[in-house]
Amino acid sequence: MADTELAPTRPGIYSRGTETVDAILKAAHDVLIEEGAEAFTVRRIATECGLRVGNVSYHFPKKEMLVQVLLDDIMENYNTKLDVNVRQPDLSDEERLRLVIVICLDDICSKRTTHLFTELWALANHNDFIAERVRGFYAKVHDVIGEYVQRINPALSPDEVHTLSLFISASMEGTTPFLGYKKPWNDKMAAITAISASWFIDLVKSTKPGDIADMTRRSS
Amino acid sequence: MADTELAPTRPGIYSRGTETVDAILKAAHDVLIEEGAEAFTVRRIATECGLRVGNVSYHFPKKEMLVQVLLDDIMENYNTKLDVNVRQPDLSDEERLRLVIVICLDDICSKRTTHLFTELWALANHNDFIAERVRGFYAKVHDVIGEYVQRINPALSPDEVHTLSLFISASMEGTTPFLGYKKPWNDKMAAITAISASWFIDLVKSTKPGDIADMTRRSS
DNA sequence: GCAAAAATAGGACGATCATCAAGATTTGGT
DNA sequence: ACCAAATCTTGATGATCGTCCTATTTTTGC
């Protein structure tokens, strides 16, 4: 198991308890997205789900526990959603990569993702637990993208596949603060999505083994 | 003047006062970057610059004033740095665009920028003043990029130039949470920078008028 | 049904927050 | 040198934070 360091376990033994824990987690999730990390207090969360402060403190004796359980919940949710949406049959590898790109950019436009990930990126600066979970999530995203990159262009080395996946993923995530939910250039997201789907696939197809190393060497 | 809404003025009349205000702003800047928005308290800032809480409160009666003056300071600083670095003589438009890309990605790797902008993106979710200043800053970045895009490919319409600039800028900013200062894939920044400089310029040169509209129409 | 365990209510704790008020000190113009 | 204004110290304000403690109520195992 290797749970030596981090093993936030979900409290709640009786059914009433687990229901309450669910309510607390949902409330915490909503407060974080609707009002931001600043408003993310035990009291605000308790109010949000109609509980008393002491009761929330009973289920999560330390606030950090709540943060960790919540984050695990959220990340697991994103991972399964990604899996479910991508594993469509009857699609070519190219169509699958296009689908991943469209799904990611579409998701970025949701209020949930726009707010959540900007908060997480900031929190990750000074919270190792959050940093590690965010890293793990994106590692999985890169793997999913990399799987199709490799199939579309089998000549590429694993390292080249990873670099390309990283580049595509970072480029997409970068739209969050500009073209995300209610962001200044949100109206341009359709065009950016179309460009991304088309150009990233072109990039994957046209990159030849050694290209990245050549470019890196030349520009250093 | 139309200063009805936002006109944060820098306090401090006597030279001693201005020095103190400078010290407060520097301390506030450092606290935000080194310890994040969570630690951004008047008390912490006062300690950082060896002042008493009441004195900081004297110069900035409301914390929001401090935030606004600080942010204006920071954004002005970034804008002038961008101008100074880009306005190099004896360079072709293509070399200038390459320079902007390299400068931006290099800057993203600094602790200051990596931490600062992730914090600002999060704060912008629920603080209109910050959201507006961040928007204004990136609008300027897009203009700088757009100027060279237009010159490299004069056939493109202003809207196409803007979309391309937005795409390039967003792609670069997206590297912040992944390849920025002490981020998980920071060691890949050299390769990503090389890819970006080369690929974005290729895109600008190869895009034909109508291409973006065609792709957008086809994918809707 | 009954005892034990779990869940909840309600209040209190000390710590820290932004802000303020009043007095002491320093500064700049004259 | 003097005075008013600017600056700084000091202490206190009420609000809010996370956490804890003790009853009280609800649920579960038997």
TrEMBL record, chains A, B:
The UniProt record lists the HTH tetR-type domain at 18-78
Q: Which PROSITE patterns match?
A: HTH_TETR_2
Record-linked Pfam families: TetR_C_6, TetR_N
Which UniProt keywords are present, listed alphabetically? DNA-binding, Repressor, Transcription, Transcription regulation
Say which domain of life the source belongs to. Bacteria
Q: Which residues bind DNA?
A: 41-60
Put simply, this protein is called: TetR family transcriptional regulator
